[in-house]
Amino acid sequence: MKSDRRILESALLVVRWQRGDRAAFDQLMRIWEQPLFYYLRRLTATEADAWELLQETWLKALKSLAKLRDPQALPAFLYRTARNAAITRFRKPEFYSLDSDAQNICDDRPNDPIDDFDSAEQVHAGLEQLPLLQREALTLFFLQDLSLEEMSLLLGVPIGTVKSRVHYGKQALRKILSEDQSHD
């Protein structure tokens, strides 16, 4: 989960980096490595792919960080950079098969599929079976605790599309997890 302290500390490090303190980037990497890796791991098939994409993310961030106007926007900047690296690497037509026009309600987090199941392993295995856009939306919403507005900015899509992806992702994950439980 992100915290206000992490955002403020990161913003200060961005300013230090922009003013020439090269050690500040190492500190940013330490703060954001685990959350970014976790996010990328949900988007990729293997841990090795996630590590490679994380390296690409850091290289791209290193090149672009000087241009970041709002240092407090660093989390969205890093997640967007990571997402773009993953999309570029794994661009496939089946990842974009969702109906992005549907407007569904998912503003509240009660009764989310993660709370309904005891095993985190079950949830992660279920996430792996979802299409990329749904998996990404659920990861950002539930596991990275981003708001719908933050997700909209990060993904570069309208808030209605974000709601749709979360809604359909929740439905698909519930179905997958229910089927897995009935097989046990």
CATH fold description of the largest domain:
Arc Repressor Mutant, subunit A
- What characteristic shape results from the CA principal axes? elongated
Question: In this structure, how is the largest beta sheet organized?
Answer: none
Q: How many helices?
A: 8
The CATH architecture name of the largest domain reads Orthogonal Bundle
Provide the domain count.
Answer: 2
Low-confidence stretches: 92-117
What is the overall pLDDT average? 80
* Assigned CATH class of the largest domain: Mainly Alpha
What distance lies between the first and last C-alpha atoms, to the nearest angstrom?
A: 32 Å
User: Structural class, please?
Assistant: mainly alpha
Total strand segments:
0
C-alpha Rg, in Å?
A: 17 Å
Beta-strand portion reads under 5%
Oligomer: single chain
The helix content, as a percent range, equals: 55-70%
